[in-house]
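Possible regression after last week's pipeline update?

I re-ran a chain I had predicted before the update to compare outputs. Posting the input and the new output here so someone can diff against the archived version. Not blocking, just want to make sure nothing changed silently.
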Amino acid sequence: MLYRICLLSFVCLISSAMVASEGTAYASERQSVELFEFETPGQQKQAIELAKTLRCPMCQNQNLIESNSPVAKDIRLKVFQLVKAGKTEQEVKDFMVARYGEHVLYKPSLSRQNALLWGLPVILGLSIVIFMLRSVIRTKKQ
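New output (post-update):
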C-alpha cells in the first residue's frame, strides 16, 4: 500500500514538472512570435496578411492571427520566418499545404476532389427533386 502511494506521488511529481517545462517552452515561443522582427514594414504587412489567409488546423474557424493555440503560434512563427527568408506567398502556401493539408487554406484550389466534394450534394439534391417531381406527375396521371 505504501509502495503504491509513493509511486503515485512520484508520477504526480514527474507529470507536474513536465507540465511546468512545457509552459515555459510555450511562453518562450509565444515571446518569439510576438517579438518577431521583420526587416521592413512591408514584409511585416505581407506576413500578417498571409497568416490571415491560413486556417489554424486545431481551431478550424480561426485564422493564424486570431488563434491563440500553441499550434497556430508555431505555424505563425514558421510563416514569419519563411516571409523573412524571402519566400513568395505561393511558396509559403505550398509549404503549409504540403505539411498540413489543403484544409489549412481558407480558399482551397479547385481540384477534382474539391469539385466532387461541393458538386456531389448539388447533384444528389437535384436528383431527389427530379425523382419527387416524376413521382408526383405519375400519381396525378393515374
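Follow-up from reviewer: compared with the archived run. Residues 1-32 have pLDDT under 50 and may be disordered. Marking as no regression found.
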